[in-house]
Amino acid sequence: MEMWYSLEITGSDVAKTTMQRIMDAFMPKYVGAGRPLDMAVFSSHDVASDSWTLYFSPKAQSLAMRFGASSFEGEFVDQDLALLVGDARSMDILFPDVKTSLDG
Asked: CA dist 58 to 47, 50, 86, 87, Å?
């Protein structure tokens, strides 16, 4: 299994700024790589602690390193993930066993 990376961010203003910087940096790398469906960044928000965790797919490793993300060896079980940046089909490609609420 290829390595995923995660980055935790606390505080709404810091998170908003950091996520925008990541989205801006992602697009040139994504386009330059030929728009791979398995290159994406996902986010998960913990309302109680006002923190965000960003998850970089293995193909987004160079971006993860640029922003100081750490290797993620956990599981995505019970994670409420949202696509931050990447192809809309990335969730289906990277998490084929997960049924989304849109699937009915």
From this structure: 27, 26, 13, 15
Task: Give one DSSP letter per residue of 8-28, joined into a string.
Answer: EEESHHHHHHHHHHHHHHHHH
Distance between the two ends of the chain, CA-based, in angstroms? 29
The pLDDT tens digits of the residues spanning 22-70 come to: 999 999 999 999 999 999 999 999 888 889 999 999 999 999 999 999 9
The DSSP symbol for 98 reads P
Q: Is the Cα torsion angle 12, 15, 21, 25 positive or negative in sign?
A: negative
- Alpha-carbon torsion, ordered 62, 65, 67, 72, to 10 deg: 110
Model pLDDT for residues 66-88, shown as the tens digit of each residue: 999 999 988 876 678 999 999 99
